[in-house]
Specification:
By secondary structure, the chain is mainly beta. It is built from no helices and eleven strands.
């Protein structure tokens, strides 16, 4: 069983910064991709960033502002968020899974999710 616990959310003003953490426990040896997602009220969940074998990928809306990183020694995943905007307000979730091939293309298949941490950005 794998458990993911997020922390680091909070309320900040427009232009501020936050660092989210995700602590991972359990049998994680088979999991090779981790990511951050977010869901705002009334909106669908969207992928923010993922990291796989040291390679990172970001949603266009956060490129240049957010940085995802992973510390395997600490079994932790991080999301550094800078220049926050009101539209970044959402519940943020971390997820872990495997990179699989779908139609010949690599795609993350997330199997475990955390409970989320709230990020609120105000002007």
């Amino acid at each position: 069983q794998v458990q993911l616990v997020e922390s680091g959310g909070g309320s900040v003003q427009d232009g501020g910064s936050l660092r989210l953490s995700c602590s991972v426990s359990g049998s994680t040896s088979s999991l090779n991709v981790m990511g951050w997602f977010r869901q705002a009220p009334g909106k669908e969940r969207e992928g923010v960033a993922f990291i796989y074998a040291g390679i990172t990928s970001y949603a266009d809306s956060v490129k240049g502002r957010f940085t995802i990183s992973r510390d395997n020694a600490k079994n932790s995943l991080y999301l550094e968020m800078n220049s926050l905007k009101r539209e970044d307000t959402a519940m943020y979730y971390c997820a872990a899974g495997l990179m699989v091939r779908v139609g010949g293309f690599p795609e993350p298949e997330y199997r475990y999710w955390g409970q989320g941490t709230q990020v609120t950005v105000s002007s």
